[in-house]
Amino acid sequence: MSTAQHSRRRFTAAALAAGAVLAVTGAASASADPAAADRGPKPTVVLEHGAFADASSWNGVVARLRHDGYPVVAAADPLRGPAADAAALRSVIDHVQGPVVLVGHSYGGSVISAAAVGEPRVRALVYVAAFLPAPGESALGLTEQFPGSTLPDALDPVPFTNADGSTGTDLYIRQDRFRAQFAADVPAEQAALAAAAQRPIAQAALTEPATAAAWQTVPSWDIVTTRDLNIPAEAQRFMARRAHARTTEVAASHSVAVSHPGLVADVVEQAARATR
Fold first, then answer.
1. What is the C-alpha to C-alpha distance for residues 183 and 170, in angstroms, rounded to an integer?
2. Are strands 122-128 and 155-161 parallel, antiparallel or unpaired?
3. How confident is the model at residue 228 (pLDDT cuts 50, 70, 90)?
């Protein structure tokens, strides 16, 4: 082999080696790029259900958020009253590492509004067909300001007695009215299961006034359900405007997290991205 051929082979090998080094370096640079890394770790999404539901009502939303890499906790709401339930939710938040996006459905909106007050790790609030009470307001009072709720006629009150002898009333939705009232756009069999498994809310929880409102200082997003028979759409719009929330409207029932989990997950992820 001639000297020229040896030189050409050495040059080609050197070029290939250099190309490989550049490829590795480029890949490392890309992974170090903040945009490629999606601007750091994702916040934990904490989901708070409302009355007449349980944490499983978030299942479709949880599946999508987890698929997209978000850590998720679907908390159990005791449904006893905004102050007590907010204290329970804060214990969940305290157990989470890093920043948090709080999401509340229905009465759960009252709970997240109270739980996030003074909690700097809560970076965003997402309200899903939810209450956003101002101090002094209650869920029942806000509902009664606007026409359209048919919930009172669908309720099934059940008296209870606590271990200390105190009494109260739990509210359920009658199972034969549940789908029409709460989940009209959910398949009948799925709505029947939800009706059987519904968690009752203490009647007193709906009249307990809010004492603080985190939406006054924390960036907020809101999903307004225009076919809602629990919280009238106009009531939802009023609260969203007052909170300067980024609002998405959807023709859905009160059970929008069940009937439109992809839309709910998309709005939650918008809030999560905006806070990073």
1. 20
2. unpaired
3. very high
Please list, residue by residue across 104-132, b when 16 or more beta carbons sit within 10 angstroms of its beta carbon and e when fewer do.
bbbbbbbbbbbbbbebeebbbbbbbbbbb
pLDDT at 39: 62
Q: What angle do CA 23, 27, 33 make, to 5 degrees?
A: 145
Domain 44-274 in this protein, CATH class: alpha beta
3-class state of residue 272 by DSSP: helix
Q: In angstroms, how far is CA 193 from the centroid of its own chain?
A: 22
Instruction: Name the amino acid, one letter, at 182.
Output: F
Q: What percent of the chain has pLDDT over 70?
A: 86
Of 58, 225, 272, 265, nearest in space to 130 by CA: 225
Distance between CA atoms of 127 and 104, rounded to whole angstroms? 5
Distance, CA of 232 to CA of 142 (rounded, Å): 10
What is the rounded distance in angstroms from the CA atom of residue 220 to the CA atom of residue 27?
A: 37
CA angle 179-79-248, nearest 5°?
Answer: 60
User: In Å, how far from its chain's centre is CA 253?
Assistant: 16
How far is Cα 251 from Cα 264, in angstroms, rounded to an integer?
13
Alpha carbon distance 16, 202 (integer Å)? 72
CA angle 205, 221, 265 (to 5 degrees): 95
**Sequence ranges of the domains in the chain:** 44-274
Tokens (6 digits) for 53: 């539901």
Q: Is the pLDDT of residue 93 over 90?
A: yes
Pick the more confident residue, 20 or 243. Answer: 243
| Degrees, nearest 5: CA angle 83-272-219 | 55
Cβ atoms 110, 234 nearer than 8 A: no
Q: Are 170 and 160 in contact (CB under 8 A)?
A: yes
Partners of 159 in beta bridges: 169
